Fold this sequence. Notes:
Layout: H1 9-25, H2 36-55, H3 60-86, H4 94-114
Amino acid sequence: MIHTYKDLIVWQKAMNLVVEIYKITTLFPKSELYGLVSQIRRCSVSIPSNIAEGRFRGTKKGYLNFLRIAYSSGAELETQIEISKRLEFNADYSKVDILLEEVMKMLNTMLRKMHP
């Protein structure tokens, strides 16, 4: 039984994603600290944060809205990761890629099931 957002597997995976994002972005060029690194970190943190906030909203409509924001942040993160790959920032993206794909699939499923 789910009692809190911390019980949600999607939130747990999103939290693991944030940790992996922080790990790989430490390897990015220092010149990107206030650019791409900052942006990637902010939108990765946005995913579990919005899942948690939505869960506490108390209404299906509120929860759905925050899940959409989390899903949108995931799409933004996918784009920023792709940019960093094209810029050839040397990092192992394998864990990030797997976690992000899992989180996005889970959010997509939740949104489809909850949408009226």
